[in-house]
Structure formats: C-alpha cells, structure tokens
Amino acid sequence: MALRFNGCGMRRVAFASLVFALLALALAAQVAADTSATPLLHTARVTGVSEQWREVRLPHRYSSPVVVATVHRPGTGSKPAVARVRNAAGDRFELRVQQATRPGEVVLGATYDVEYLVVEAGVYTQAEHGLAMEAAIVNSTRTDGKFAGGWQGQVRSYQNAYVNPVVLGQVMSANDQRWSVFWARGTAWGSAPDSTGLRLGKHVGEDTDTTRVDELLGYVVMESGQGEVGGVRYHAGVSAELVQGTGNAPPYVVGHQLGGTLTGAVVSAAGMKGGDGGWPVLYGPGSLEGGGLGLAFEEDQMSDLETAHIAERVGYLAVRAGPGIVGQGPSSEIYVRDFQTFERSEFLLAGSAKDDFGIRAVTIAVQNRVNELWLQRDNTWGEAVVRHHADLSVPEAAVTRWIFRQSLPIGNYLVDAEATNVSGVKESAADRMSRQLQVGQDRAVLDPGLRWLTLQFGRSQWGAAGGGTCSPYADPTNGSVFLDEVASFLTKRGYTAQASVPFGQLHPDPSVRKCPWPGVVSSSLDDLVMLRENHGWTFVADSIGPLPSNPSDRPGMSSLTCDDQLTAASASLAELLRFGHARGWGLFAAPIGSLDTGIRDNLASKFYAFSRIYGKSENTQANALTGDWAVFHTVDSGMCNDPTADCYDHYVPGNSRTKRYQLPDELLGYMIANPGAWRGIQFYRLVRGANVPLGYPGTAESPVGESDQSYWDCTSPDPKLHWTSRVELYCYEDFVSIIDRLHTEHPDVITTDTAHVATTWGIDNPNHWTSYPICNCQTNADCATDQRCQGGQCQ
User: Fold this and answer.
1) Alpha helix (H) ranges present in 687-753?
2) Which residue of 20, 118, 679, 719 has the fewest C-beta atoms within 10 A of its own C-beta?
3) Which string of b and e fits 600-630 if b means at least 16 CB within 10 Å?
4) What is the sign, positive or negative, of the torsion defined by CA atoms of 681, 748, 336, 442?
C-alpha cells in the first residue's frame, strides 16, 4: 500500500551571481541567544577568490559558526587549490585559496570561485528542528597523507542517530601556512562515514613534508535526503564510487533530485580509496547545471604533476531556490511494519508517501481504545487529539517512507496517519486512514501468544535467467520476479526478510550481478545494501570460496580442512560486516549437508548464534539453547499436483523430476508456529506467468527443451496445476497469496531475523574474533581409526 498524492509544480527564482543567500530555516529555538533571525543553514558563492585573505561578511550573526568551503575549478588550465578559512566569528570569516603544488608551479594572481556553507554549531533533531543534523568544531592533532603513515583520521562520535549520514567539513584555521584539507571516512579508509563509524581529519596528500601545526576542523553531519527550508530545496547525499581525478576525464556527474540548475553546492571527501589522497571540487563552467553536480577529485602536485585518481565517493549538499505551488491535497494509507515486535515496548509503524513535488510531514495520532484518551506530547493521555511527527526517510522527496516509533504499554490502540505536502496542504479527513492495533509485551521476553517467522531467500538470488545466459527474463507476463519487487511487496505488508550470501558466487564489483550457474542471476553487493537500507532486510553467511582444500566458489564445510573451516566461518562474517551487514552473526547458512555437530559446536558456534539445518520441525527456545540449530523448511517445486493433468508425470529437462510443486495451503500452514515458537522458511527464485516452449515436454526419449533451461507454468487459477522444471523456482502469484493470507488471517505471526530471535532467547553475539578455536586435527586421517575430525577435534 502507498500514500497517493497529486500534482504540484515549482516556481523558479533568479539570484544574483556574485553573492547570494540560499538556504534558510527559521528555528523555534536557536543556538545563538542573540540571533533569533539567524537561519539554520546559509550558503553563498564568492567569486574571484585569490591567494590573498579576503573578509566575507555574513547577513546574520553566529555565536559559533561552522564554515565549509568548496573550490570551483574552472577547467584544465588552472592549478589544484584548496579553500582556506580562518577567524570565523560573529557575522564574518576570512577566506583565501591556496594552490597545492610545488612553489615553481604556483600561478600567482590566479582566482577561483568558492561556494560556502555556514551552520551554527549545535545539535538539531527532526522532531524539534525539522531535520537531523549536527555541527561542531574540533582540534585536529593528526595529519594524514600518502607519506604520513596512511589514512587514519580521528575518531568522532555522533550526537544524533543517523541512517545514512552525510559529512561535510573544512580546515577552519591557518595556524600553519602550508596547505592542508579536510577529509572524512567510515570504518575503513575507502568507506564513507556510516551510521556506526566516523573518522575525520586533515591531510596533505602527496606532500613529503607531513608535519603540520594543529588546526581547527569544522564539520557538519546531516541525514541524507532532500527537503525544503526557507523556500529553498536541498538534497544531501553521498555519491556512488564514480568521481575520478581532474587528470582523468572530468566532470563526473552526480545526480540529485532537485532538477534544473542549482543555486549552490558544497562537497567533501567520503573515504579515501586512492593512496595519493585528494579532495573533491566543482569542475567546469556547467557544474551546477543539467540536473547534476559536475565534480572531479583533485590531487596535489607536490611530488608529481599528474592528477589522475581512481573513483571515489563524495559527500554533497546541493541547493536550489523555488517554493512549491499548492496543488490538490494528499491522501494516505497505513501499512504496519513489525508493530508486534518491540525494543523496550517500542511501537513501530511505517508507511510510504508519494507526491509530484514532495512530502513535508506525516503525523500520527494515537488513541487508547479502552479509555478513548489520546497520546499527548509529554507521553501522558488526555482528551485532546494530538498529532506526533513521524520520521521521513527522505524529507521533502517525491517518494518517501515514514516510520513512527513510540513506547506504549500493552493494550489496544487506534492509530490515525495524516500526510502534508510541501505547500502545507493536508489530506482531507475523508481520505485519512485509521487502523486498530494491539501492542504486546517487551521484546526482551517473547510473548507466548505470538508466533515468529523468518522469511529467508536462499543465496540472495536476484532472479531467474534463461539457460546459460545472464539475461533475466524481463517480460512481466513471462519472466522472473526480481528481489526488489519481492521486497517492496513484503514491506507494504509490514514484513521483513533475510537472505544468505555465498560470497564466492557474487561478483567482486559491487554494482555487477553475476550468473553463477545456468538459470540464476545473483544479486550484486549493492543490491544487498539497497534491500537492507530500503526494506530492513538482514543478510547472513552462506559460504565463501575458493579455499585451498576446496576450489569450489561455494564449498561445503565438511569438505574443508579445519583451518579452511575456520577461515570460511570467520571470513564470511567479516565480509558481511565489510558491507555494513551487522546482523549476520544470527545464522550460519552453510550449504546443505555440510555441517555436523562437531563443526557446529567447535567452530560455527564461535561466530554465529545458530547454524541452519533443513527440516519441517519448529524451533523452540528450549531446543535452541541446547543445540543452536535453526530448522528451516526449504520450498521445493516440481511436477503439478493434479493426477489427471499431463503435468503430473511428464518428463522435464531439469532437476524437479522427483519433486512435486508445494501448494500454498501447505506452505501457509507450515509458517504458523505454535505460540512462543519460531519457524524458518526458505524461498529461492520467484517467477510469474509461463515459460513453456512449443511442443513441450515431448518424451523422455525425445524431450522438447534444453537441460540447462528453466521452464514453468504459473498461469492456472488452480495452484494444483502449477509446475516448474527446477526445484528452486516458485510461482510469484502463489507467494503473494500466501503472504496476503498470512497478513489478514494470522496477525499474531511476526516476521523477524535470526539475530532478533537469538537476542530474545538469551543467545548473545558470540563475537569470538580474538579467541579462535584450536584445530587439533585437519582431516579424519589425523585421528584414531575409531574417531572423526569434527570441527578440528578428534571425536
């Protein structure tokens, strides 16, 4: 379900080219006591900035201004330069450019345009100020660079919680006359700051003189997304890994969601994959035009004159003036996302909103259905109807998801959602949607009246492919259903899922999908991040290969030596963490038949809460605490279930010859655990319509079709006539019917991931990174004749 919004337009406003104020937001509570009219954010451009210090006057006063400046490099004829800032206080700061090249290469008198951003230091929240943001000034005691011992930065802690933070910064003092420039990173050198990791600092690139006096660093952290403040729209984000050097082929265009020509932008390095170091600049005369940012990643010329650089990620803030025009008002629907599961009795609702121009707010009213009182802002209950702001994933966007969290006691409630567009038009009362919900008890103790379910997708397969090619079927009436469509459908029903990841079968390029075997298209690593960020999916380890004792890209644990088993268990988890999947410790989903109790007990349990085993029994807390097995039912397909039909026993050139298509009623019944118990079910690739060659199937002696092709027929309204030629295909129409019935007929079934079950049942993250088990044996040959080597131990 989605919110329906109707058309709005945009009015374009012209600004002066020399210095113009762009981004403004009036605050209810300002950090500076004497600046009630000071905007939260202010950007402008200064033209013709040279190597001489120049005073920049601001239209407002600040108690503690944080300034971020970005050089606009006009083209190949200019030299690498950084913006320098000092003496920022009150209503002014000083600005210059400094060329980062050898003295003999400096072009005296050269000038550059500089874009800048000013923010009052402080912490800002979505609830109070309309956006999540913080700005601070810190002392930089470390200097990074190619010859300065690497790219470490200094660890900083966020004052807000961010899902996708954007970090912008500046060296804000000139204690040292030699140049340096701001940069930021996440947990690794080449990674952008993320929700769990932030390091920042100053660097000197390839300068062999790496000593610098301590400098002040100013930085701003914003939640990525777009919004409108003071009649000006903004979009903050982190680019893909695509911005290369000024010595390559700039500009590199980073798209934004504001459309048209921008009126300003600032950028900062988000990680440092290139060892020479560098910093992003606006590049070329049209860098703010055409619906994208024209960027390049600048290098200094201290050690050499080349400025080529590998692709980097860049944090950016783009702005465009022009308020929206009022159109027809919005309407809304509600879907529920995991409302029965709680962290400290936390109530969680979610929805989505869509509008041609953008959504400003979604507000929620909550009524106790027993006493008919409404939730107040101080968490008391009263007769007045009070509306509470939901968090928007992308504020002011044409499409945004919203989430509302609130601690509530056990009970029955009525929830009313109301959306507002950027022009302030609210949906009519007749269009608003309300829903009655029941809140259970705390997540720390599993409510005995609730039934848990993990929907898992085996090996994170993006979809079905034709034969040995890597071209997924694209025809919606005769093709594969890709995971993004599956995830969107589940999200709208309030359900989440998890998937296992065989790293050896995924392409090393994060943006590329791969065909590991005929009929299968694997997800890309970027696909997995998208599913996690947009739909809350969790990813767990399947396998990693090849390894010295098994050259397969998906080796089974039992086929490996103990040392390789240890590598497989730890490296799979490390790879998940490298791509931000922090809940992979919940399950080790190694290939079927490749785990025994010894491997599980002596190796897998050191890193994972559960190890997957296939079966049809349900998981209980008592069994989990004694065995740590997680039983998953694997969904198999094959011949149809109508004995009077040809598809009941006809020959198929695939791997479903001994299997029969599992009916929706059977699978739905399996998903319903007993109160207080947990079920796991694993799907693979979903398909729709039919893919049947003319004359199919032929005979066993003269079949029609090829052995490596995937065939299916999901067109009959009777599921008993559905069939597939491969066991891991299942009809999307039947999957949808199962989930819809689960949603309407069994509201006490909650989808969750294995890490959540583990935490609730008292199984903590093993996290044995520094206390590896010892391999006393490698193979059975190392043990006595009556013993086997299980998990490195002779037993």
Assistant:
1) 732-745
2) 20
3) bbbbbbbbbbbbbbeeeebbbbebbeebbbb
4) negative
Identity of the highest mean pLDDT range in 48-62, 164-178, 574-588, 703-717: 164-178
pTM of the model: 0.49
pLDDT tens per residue, range 459-517: 999 988 755 456 665 444 457 899 999 998 888 777 889 999 999 999 889 988 888 87
Radius of gyration of the chain (CA): 29
Residue 401 has pLDDT above 70, yes or no: no
Q: How confident is the model at residue 355 (pLDDT cuts 50, 70, 90)?
A: low
What is the distance between the alpha carbons of residues 78 and 46, in angstroms, rounded to a whole number? Answer: 18
Handedness of CA 120, 122, 126, 132 (dihedral sign): positive
Q: Is-contact 282 335, C-beta < 8 A?
A: no
Q: Each residue of 269-280: b (16+ CB within 10 Å) or e?
A: bbbbbbebbbbb
Specify which residues 750 forms β-bridges with: 452
Q: Which residue has tokens 């108690």?
A: 63
Which region holds residue 628: left if phi is over 0, alpha if psi is between -120 and 50, else beta?
left
Q: Name the DSSP letter for residue 735.
A: H
589 band by pLDDT with thresholds 50, 70 and 90: very high
Tell me how far apart the alpha carbons of residues 233 and 220 are, in angstroms, rounded to a whole number.
Answer: 18
Q: How many helices (H) and strands (E) does the chain have?
A: 9, 48
CA dist., res. 712 & res. 637, Å (int): 10
Q: Find where tokens 């500046």 sit.
A: 170
CA nearest to 269, candidates 227, 305, 311 = 311
Looking at this protein, which amino acid is placed at residue 319? V
CA 309, CA 243: separation in Å to the nearest integer?
9
Task: Report the distance separating Cα 385 and Cα 375, nearest Å.
Answer: 8
Alpha-carbon distance 62 to 396, whole Å? 27
Specify whether the CB–CB gap between 198 and 256 falls below 8 A: no
Q: How many angstroms separate the CA atoms of 640 and 478, rounded?
A: 19
Cα–Cα distance, 326 to 357 (Å, whole number): 10
The pair of three-digit structure tokens given for residue 72, joined into one six-digit string:
């606009």
Residue with tokens 């209950």: 381
Peptide bond into 251 cis (omega under 30): yes
Neighbouring residues of 526: CB distance < 8 A, sequence distance ≥ 6: 510, 511
Which residues lie across from 120 on neighbouring strands?
65
CA distance 239 to 252: 11
Q: Residues 513, 523: contact at Cβ < 8 Å?
A: yes
Tokens of 567: 């590598």
How many angstroms separate the Cα of 583 from the Cα of each of 160, 339, 443, 619? Answer: 22, 20, 17, 19
- Find, among 205, 235, 120, 219, the residue nearest to 172 by Cα: 219
Angle between helices 525-535 and 483-492 (to 10 degrees): 10
If you average pLDDT over residues 177-181, what whole number do you get? 95
Distance CA 547, CA 545 (A): 5
Q: Which residues pair with 405 in a beta bridge?
A: 348
Terminal CA-CA length for the chain: 55
| Six token digits for residue 408 | 């509530």
Cβ atoms of 732 and 481 within 8 Å: the answer is: yes
User: Residue 449: how many CB atoms within 10 A of its CB?
Assistant: 12
Helix (H) or strand (E) holding 578: helix 562-578
Strand ranges for 378-441 from DSSP E: 381-382, 388-389, 391-392, 399-407, 411-421, 433-439
C-alpha–C-alpha distance, residues 506 and 501, integer Å: 8
Alpha helices, H only, 455-538: 483-492, 525-535
